[in-house]
Design brief:
Layout: H1 15-23, H2 30-40, H3 47-59, E1 61-64, H4 72-83, E2 97-100, H5 105-112, E3 118-123, H6 133-145, E4 150-154, H7 157-161, H8 165-179, E5 183-187, H9 190-193, H10 196-208, E6 213-215, H11 227-244, E7 249-251, H12 259-272, E8 285-287, H13 290-303
Parallel strand pairs: 1-2, 1-8, 2-3, 3-4, 4-5, 5-6, 6-7
Helix pairs in contact: 2-11, 3-12, 3-13, 4-5, 6-8, 10-11, 11-12
Length: 315
């Protein structure tokens, strides 16, 4: 479990100290950031590397269902797909996790028992995060008690955008304390943070508070993961480890639908944070439809042809 690095203890001593630290971070060159993300996205991948990248991407997926109409049957079906993504080819890797609401966590845990696939549960009044702290913490406790391996929390964007950074920091600390052995992913909802400077500040705030992962989005707003905002977060975890020795994971979520998209993000990881992050312990895709395209591209590489429309399940 990651903890606040001693080197930054002074930065979190008070609201004013935290504000000074976060606003003292280097400003983001938006044009340069977007240009670098676009440039890395044009890298060509040879066939053998593409096959490796597709399997790696499959192994990094948090296969997700976060709908009001979720049922135990749907969650069990999703769990079965996570364990054997391609029922006709048992060499296809398992996904990293299945991500569900807290009331479905126990169902997912039972369905995935012994498989090695993790159960992630959103919490803290996901996706808006608009609830009292005791309600949010109860949400986390329920998910942990149900056996969730990972908790995906949302920050209070209203508090963050109004400059109440210590409130956000202390809320993350409180959630982290309730997680026990579960790893904590902190969701910023980057589409609501408006500026790259805010995304950089949120990244450092989450890491200082003990996040095990920083995550772009809930997937429930108009702008979710982009190459540029993910690149910015990868730079943050790289720099944080360089200064503290503590490694933090990154999870882009929402809007990543094709194999081509996934490969672009893996290039970003390799070229920005480095090979140490090319593992599902440190990098995830929050996705519900990406897996199907990866499986279709995987079959194309192995057979030379695309599958029919009934080859993959429709989530």
């Amino acid at each position: 479990m990651s903890t606040t690095a001693p080197a930054f203890a002074d930065a979190t001593a008070s609201d004013s100290a935290l504000r000074r630290f976060l606003h003292g971070l280097p400003g983001v060159d938006a044009v340069g950031l977007e240009a670098r993300a676009a440039s890395l996205g044009t890298r060509s991948i040879k066939t053998t590397a593409k096959a490796y990248a597709i399997d790696l991407a499959i192994s990094m997926i948090d296969l997700t269902t976060l709908e009001g109409a979720d049922t135990p049957g749907k969650v069990r079906a999703l769990a079965a797909k996570a364990v054997h993504p391609d029922p006709t080819d048992r060499t296809a890797p398992r996904t990293a996790a299945v991500c569900v609401y807290p009331d479905m966590a126990a169902t997912a845990v039972a369905a995935l028992a012994g498989s090695g696939v993790k159960v992630a549960s959103v919490a803290t009044a996901f996706p808006a995060g608009r609830a009292a702290l005791d309600v949010k913490l109860a949400d986390v406790r329920d998910a942990v008690a149900a056996g969730a391996d990972e908790i995906d929390m949302v920050i209070d964007r209203g508090a963050f955008l109004s400059g109440r950074y210590l409130k956000v920091y202390e809320e993350i600390l409180a959630v982290k304390a309730e997680c026990g052995r579960a790893r904590l992913k902190v969701i910023f909802e980057t589409g609501e943070l408006s500026t790259y400077d805010n995304i950089r500040r949120a990244s450092w705030l989450g890491m200082l508070a003990g996040a095990d992962f920083i995550k772009t989005s809930t997937g429930k707003v108009g702008v979710n993961a982009t190459p540029a905002n993910t690149l910015l977060m990868l730079e943050a975890v790289r720099d944080f480890r360089a200064q503290t020795g503590v490694q933090i994971g990154v999870k882009p979520a929402g809007g990543i639908r094709t194999s081509k998209d996934a490969v672009k993000f893996l290039v970003l990881v390799n070229e920005t944070a480095g090979e140490d992050w090319l593992d599902n312990h440190w990098f995830r895709f929050g996705a519900s439809s990406l897996l199907n395209d990866l499986l279709m591209q995987r079959q194309k590489l192995s057979t030379g042809r695309y599958s029919g429309p009934d080859y993959v399940t429709v989530d």
